Amino acid sequence: MPKRHDPIHERLLIGFLLTLAGGALDAYTYLNHGQVFAGLQTGNVILLTLHLANGNWPLVGHYLMPILAFAIGIFATVSIEHYFQKNRQFQWQQIVLILEIIGLIAVALLNNHWQDLWITCLISIVAALQYQTFRRIKGRPFTTIMATGNIRNIAVFLWLALLKREPQKLHQAGESLLIVLAFMLGALISGLLTPLWHQLTVLFIVLDLIIILGLLQWATHRGLQ
């Protein structure tokens, strides 16, 4: 059976670094901008519904706007893929990473000038860009901005390895575990940096994304797409 050659943006290292950014981004927004999630829109939907049930109308927009911003980010990403996926000079995923970096640099610059609501909306757009763009690792579905699906993968691969006697699935379970640990590590780093850097903690995520962009650009020049 021929060896599988995955696109560079589906390699394990890229998935690890992207998930690191995803965990850091959610923790950053929660800690620094009003306990709202950047990517975990399920959490925002739950909090939105609870405030609706309790009649806390002033807080409804606090959670509704990031949800709408996330949807706008998904719409924008699908548009980018549609118009640029056939370009042979660069990967459309690189455009998304550049937009993410620009968006988070804007967050760092505007933190003291914009209200938390608008900062959170901008970060939600960034999270949506990443979520829609990077959805597979080694050909398998995964997500960079939440842990639920990746935890599911661990359980499924373990079942296949232990009960169906497919030992190669044990390796895939280990890779999925590594991705979950990357998400936790990102959140941990955000938590540790926030007391020191405060809202500028977002620059750590910018650095991580720049590294990923550099790896993709290097691979493009080497013909390793």
TrEMBL record:
* InterPro entries associated with the record: DUF1275 (IPR010699)
Keywords in alphabetical order, please. Answer: Membrane, Transmembrane, Transmembrane helix
Q: Where are the transmembrane segments?
A: 12-31, 60-80, 92-111, 117-134, 141-162, 174-193, 200-219
Q: Name one Pfam family in it.
A: DUF1275
Q: Does the keyword section mention Mitochondrion?
A: no
| Cited PANTHER family | SLR0142 PROTEIN, UPF0700 TRANSMEMBRANE PROTEIN YOAK
Protein name listed in UniProt = YoaK family protein
